[in-house]
Amino acid sequence: MRAEDFYFVKRRDIRWRHSSKMAAGGSGEDAFQTFYTEVKQIEKRDSVLTSKQQIDRLLRPGASYFNLNPFEVLQIDPEATDEELKKRFRQLSILVHPDKNQDDVDRAQQAFEAVDKAYKMLLEPDQKKKALDVIHAGKEYVEHMMSQKKKQLKKDGKPIDVEEDDPEAFRQAVYKQTMKLFAELEIKRKEREAKDMHERKRQREEEIETQERAKREREWQKNFEETRDGRVDSWRNFQAKGKTKKEKKNRTFLKPPKVKMEQRE
User: Are 76 and 85 in contact (CB under 8 A)?
Assistant: First the structure.
């Protein structure tokens, strides 16, 4: 059985035991705490997967969106301390480091880069706060939807139990909503980036066109100055020729009288 299959089967068994305790009249708070403790134990155990499993997890289909949540990449709780964060980074980076995966260097490099990026993001206070804000927003959304469902059920006269009352279902719902929010933010970021790139390209094209126009004007002006003397001489020659022709046209010549032959009688 794969680690992932065992993981979900184990969680199903935990949910069954949780429901049994509730049916037996046990304290809801105690049952939840037991459930949460067992889930955390499973997560702690399964968080140390083999190198291949970690590489597969980090490069699975849709990883470009799954890996937007740095806490999910590092498999660490959002409330973890900085020391816990550093420790987890060291563990995970060793597992996926290319030097430790000589038979799969290229994929290991990609996985390592995803881990390194997530770690650096959480080291930056502003970036960490943004990630936490998204997670909190996802949780608040799920809680709001649960409240709306309960109100509708109450209005319809039905039991106000919803699927998300189960802690694991609630966690999964928060996970899905959080992933959706991260994806939406990433799409908007890429749209802004594409828009900014288009605007920069347009501005650059305008700058180039302005420079080319100025260059053409300078060249025209230079040619105009360099050929000025030639144009002036040509004009003067033209005027001189015109004047000569006019003078020749207006000049009159004295013609000798025609000699008439005398007629003989």
Answer: yes
On the question of pLDDT at 257 being above 50, the answer is: yes
User: Distance between CA atoms of 52 and 54, rounded to whole angstroms?
Assistant: 5
Four-CA torsion 31, 78, 113, 94, nearest 10 degrees: -60
Q: How far is CA 234 from CA 70, 231, 243, 247, in A?
A: 79, 5, 14, 20
Q: At which residue do the structure tokens 């429901």 appear?
A: 19
- Whether the per-residue pLDDT at 246 is higher than 50: the answer is yes
Task: Go through 208-224 and write b for each residue having 16 or more CB atoms within 10 A of its CB, e for each that does not.
Answer: eeeeeeeeeeeeeeeee
Compute the distance between CA of residue 186 and CA of residue 6 in angstroms, rounded to an integer.
Answer: 32
* Residues 31, 35: Cα–Cα separation, whole Å: 6
**Sign of the C-alpha dihedral, residues 13, 15, 21, 25?**
negative
Best CA proximity match to 70, nearest among 19, 30, 130: 130
Digit-coded pLDDT (tens) for 54-87:
999 999 988 888 899 999 999 999 999 999 999 9
